[in-house]
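# step 3/5: fold
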Amino acid sequence: MEEKGIPVLWNKDDSLDTYYVNNMFVSHSTGEFYVVFGELSPIVRNENMELPESVYVKPLVRLVISPDNLKEFLDILNTNFQKYEDKKK
């Protein structure tokens, strides 16, 4: 039987939540990677306040991804980032 490619098309979803993230945590098990994206809010203080002992990141979304899909994601991300960098020059 002849193999046949089927195009994968993305639907537009205006209701999809959008998050600004400035921190992430990555871990893995034997079969998958866990990537948690979060937001670390800036510390607002005046000159008389001491810095806190610790700060908290608010987790916003967790992705679980297979090693093969992560590799593909990283390749795509690197390619797009290089295009972005090239346009800045």
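# step 4/5: annotate
The CA atoms of residues 6 and 69 lie 18 Å apart.
# step 5/5: archive (pending)
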